[in-house]
């Protein structure tokens, strides 16, 4: 058997799995929206893809639609999300499973209702923003799909 090493997965530990859906909103210029985590929250100051926890009995697309309305003040129909990739990352006290969806259509103006700041960035520039460990590995999939 070959040996595989991934420092972001801790199979020897029993951790609760937290399902969080995230979105890469893509504007007409091919830029992606990222949001800065506010002070007082875990990982404050880091940039992330907007989204949030999937509640019991909720599908990820519906959770993401709800979260984007709460966080950004926009409406995105669940059918407008296209799966892109996912992150699987063990933190100290839980394991995060995070599907990342693309969205090109939404209603309303994007506003930072729960974040410190928002930024639109080209996929090639996203690595310049400090991100949580689970988000950063998703950048390659975005660059592959969207180009520069």
Task: Give a verbal description of the structure.
The protein has 148 residues and is an alpha+beta fold. 14% of the residues lie in helices and 28% in strands. The chain has helices spanning 60-72, 139-146; strands at 17-25, 32-36, 47-48, 51-53, 82-90, 95-103, 117-121. It has a 4-stranded mixed beta sheet, with helices on both faces. A 3-stranded antiparallel beta sheet has the order 3-2-7, with no helix packed on it. A hairpin with a 4-residue loop joins strand 5 (82-90) and strand 6 (95-103). The radius of gyration is 15 Å and the shape is globular.
Outline the secondary-structure elements.
Elements lengths: L16 E9 L6 E5 L10 E2 L2 E3 L6 H13 L9 E9 L4 E9 L13 E5 L17 H8 L2
Parallel strand pairs: 1-6
Antiparallel strand pairs: 1-4, 2-3, 2-7, 5-6
Specify the number of helices: 2
SSE arrangement, N to C: EEEEHEEEH
**CA-CA gap between termini:** 38 Å
Rg calculated over all Cα atoms: 15 Å
| Helix share bin | 10-25%
Distinctive features:
4-stranded mixed β-sheet, 2 helices, globular, single chain, alpha+beta, 148 residues
